[in-house]
User: Fold this.
Amino acid sequence: MTPVTGSTPPRVAEGPSHDRGLGPRGAAVLVFGSSAAVLVVEIVALRLLAPYLGLTLETSTLVIGIALTAIALGSWLGGRVADLVSPTRLLGPALGISGAVVALTPAVLRTTAEGVRPLLLLIAALTILVPGALLSAVTPIATKLRLTSLAETGTVVGRLSGVGTVGAIFGTVFTGFVLLSRLPVSTILIGLGALLLVGSALVEWRTRGWSGTPALALVVVAGGLGTTVAPGACDTETRYHCARVVADPDRDSGRALVLDGIRHSYVDVEDPTFLEFTYVRAVAAVVDSAFAEGEPLAAHHLGGGGLTLPRYLAATRPGTRSLVSEIDDGVVRIDREQFGLRPKSGVEVRAEDGRLGLRRLDTGSRDLVVGDAFGGVSVPWHLTTAEAMTDVRRVLDEDGLYVANLIDHGDLAFARAEAATLRATFAHVALLGEPTDIGLAPAGGARGGNLVVVASDRRVDLRAVQKALDARDTGWRIATGDDLTSWIGDAPLLTDDYAPVDQLLQPYG
Assistant:
């Protein structure tokens, strides 16, 4: 018999396990929440791994790749399993198990990183992949439960897919702009784990399809307790770093600012002229040699940390005005609360990106620009390019000086590229460092580490600089002219269009 045109399409075949209790609002809430949770886990995982892998392009790419793999795997398997098993039996376990894994993640990752480092990448992958796949499976499962006829297939699939995308956007924005600025990452993950467990319990109550929530609740509690005893705790968790202030046992007033496990600054809170790090003494030697003794300067600092150099300039050159661009307002709070930064100290700190801070400065307004910005073990690439250096040159007066701290190891590919970039921008460039690192001694003993580059459009008395380096017991030498040309070799110029800093830089020896 020929069907009558316009007749009602056949309903999708349903088994007895389909539960009509999951209404459109319930399905939307589940899809929205699970999609948001995937992005929360992804973004927070970057913060957890940064102290151990560095906040680099490679780390970000790895985490994003694992998260996308989890989403693809969960979507495919979720749809596949929902066709084979009653969907009501899947939602509770997906949410509950995800919550348990998420709550355990801080303790497990930090313990692994400190105790079984070779397994860190594997454990990190699993802590993202497992909850990510399970949560991504919620959308096809919920879609399966909401499909009742072929006539509404497009509407249901499209609506839930859109809701899931909106959830992912919310998870990204809320985590980046709200959660990470107000809560420690461990609190975020344990709280998310608890919320997922609550969601699992509600689904269980609604569908009566699973009864494992009580057992998983114990796992979430264990995750919270484990975080309190796991290694790697922070004094302060800022927007960008796990920060600690460590007292020097050999110097009562000495303090080290440790960011993501790396000593970024050393400050003597009572004697700002005491300079612990060799590269800081080298920068001070350059400044003291290039400008008249005691002459006040107008200085700009790209990166602040513990403000060691701004304090030194304020103490040795009264009247100096130092403006500091420090992107991490949490570090600025530490400077004020623990390192004694005072409003009328001659040091003004702005919580801003260094490149944007440069753009706000007037042309020819600075005698000195100091580059010392690092994110974990990586250099912010946009502060290394020819365009950035052109802006540095713009804000310097005709006798102004740019002094930058570079960190590199291995074949020093990044340091060579940065020196090449500065040579293309300034008339005079010199490199300071260990003789083996800057090509003034047999390379077999090269270790890498800190180097200091000096750039200007006026000649600097390098003999005076070398004398000051010797007086400060640095053991460093200066490479310039043909020696520097040979050291740079065929290193590429860094530009805003091409700056593979993360690939060139080797953060550890």
About this structure: Residues 1-20 have pLDDT under 50 and may be disordered.
